[in-house]
Amino acid sequence: MKLNKVSVNGKQLQLEVGGEGHTLLNLLQSSLLRIGNVKLAGYSRPHPLMDRSVFYVTLKRGSDFDRVLIRGAKDAKKGLADFLKKFKAEIAKRN
Asked: Which residues face 73 on adjacent strands?
């Protein structure tokens, strides 16, 4: 993954993310939108053949984007761990 901070304008951050697709970016977007201080989170792919996306985050207050992004990633990781645990339990029931 390559990250490049494109711009920070008050309460809005724009990141360029390279080497990742919709799967990770959609998961991060969903996780960020569950955080109370996040007003907007989204991304776009300039072109399907390009290996980069532009990720946007707008906060309701403050500008500690690093903390918010890390929290979003940790929450996504925890959600995946919970899913895996439940998935394994269901598979074990069927065997």
From this structure: none
Greatest pairwise CA separation for the chain in angstroms:
54
Q: Are the beta carbons of 42 and 22 closer than 8 angstroms? A: no
Q: List per-residue pLDDT tens for the chain, 95 residues long.
A: 899 899 898 899 999 999 998 999 999 999 999 999 999 999 999 888 888 999 999 999 988 999 999 999 999 999 999 999 999 999 999 87
Three-state SS for 13-52 is: EEEEEECCCHHHHHHHHHHHHCCCCEEEEEEECCCCCCCE
What is the C-alpha separation between 41 and 29, in angstroms, rounded? 6
Which of 49, 72, 58, 77 lies closest to 15, judged by CA? 58
